[in-house]
Amino acid sequence: xxxxxxxxxxxxxxxxxxxxxxxxxxxxxxxxxxxxxxxxxxxxxxxxxxxxxxxxxxxxxxxxxxxxxxxxxxxxxxxxxxxxxxxxxxxxxxxxxxxxxxxxxxxxxxxxxxxxxxxxxxxxxxxxxxxxxxxxxxxxxxxxxxxxxxxxxxxxxxxxxxxxxxxxxxxxxxxxxxxxxxxxxxxxxxxxxxxxxxxxxxxxxxxxxxxxxxxxxxxxxxxxxxxxxxxxxxxxxxxxxxxxxxxxxxxxxxxxxxxxxxxxxxxxxxxxxxxxxxxxxxxxxxxxxxxxxxxxxxxxxxxxxxxxxxxxxxxxxxxxxxxxxxxxxxxxxxxxxxxxxxxxxxxxxxxxxxxxxxxxxxxxxxxxxxxxxxxxxxxxxxxxxxxxxxxxxxxxxxxxxxxxxxxxxxxxxxxxxxxxxxxxxxxxxxx
Length: 431
Prior knowledge:
Number of strands: 10
Mean pLDDT: 95
Order of helices and strands: HEHEHEHEHEHEEEHEHEHHHHHHH
Low-confidence stretches: none
Strand order of the largest sheet: 1-2-3-4-5-6-9-10
Shape: globular
Structural class: alpha/beta
């Protein structure tokens, strides 16, 4: 099995300005779009699941790591994408979902979490122990030494799991690891921010030094042979209605510092909605792993809403799926996945539920009522002829592709192309 991630590090060491997109999603249509776009390149596709999406208790998707692996591979088999070109990653693996528990209990869960990911064949593991736990002081920042100590415990658990894995599968490649204490929260900022502080070079060095000491204390001498990246804040973020674009001058001290560590690249989180040119600059500057998530389901939602608008013009009211109405009703009935994230007047929050860049809609797409409405919408629109003038009005980018024979006039393909527009920016930056 080809070791794509270590190959990336080697290629960059040889002077190539290459990178890799990390598609963090558990949505089947989005994954399908990522893999279909991946067919255009003789390369791999990296798909990641976060600890709150997928864990040993099922996460919010109801899937454990092996379930998610099978879920992705089934999609790949269906569309003819080779599974040996898929890298599976685990994102924010650590006590993220158990931060309300004391260290002993939270870390016990975290050890089981990382073991399940490694045993299921995931090859890129982000060890994230940057959050306070119930018995940590609320009056001071969590120390690098504490973060690294907990990270080293999880690293050792991963290595133990890998040793178990290769007993039955000798050809399994060893996972690579991402560390880092300056980790943006999953899903983007919860409120608008006035500015973003780029990680300082001394903070990067302090993280690396803390992990070196923690690994030594655990008796792990070769850990940095398997650590290929550090999560940092390069100055990119997004909120409900805005985003901060990468500024390579402001990040130059950080990227220069990182370049001195030849076996390590930087990983950028919350790169969603960045211009393609900014993504390319990030890769050139050594931020070689670009993570994207909410933008992908934002594109999916956007495409479904456009179909919903056309459905209201083409389908009798009694037969309409009313996807947008069903989604809104479901989000109002179960607000736990958005209520802490959206702020403002009632009208402002109503618009954010539908159009926020943070895309809390994604948590509701697997709800049975919403999933049924999505299926009915796609079925309805497959059974009518969309006038080209209407397509131009509501899906102008897709109109030109249909006109030129580059895209089928099929509702599912049209919707996936909304996702593909975001994917194309990442492929441009990395390929």
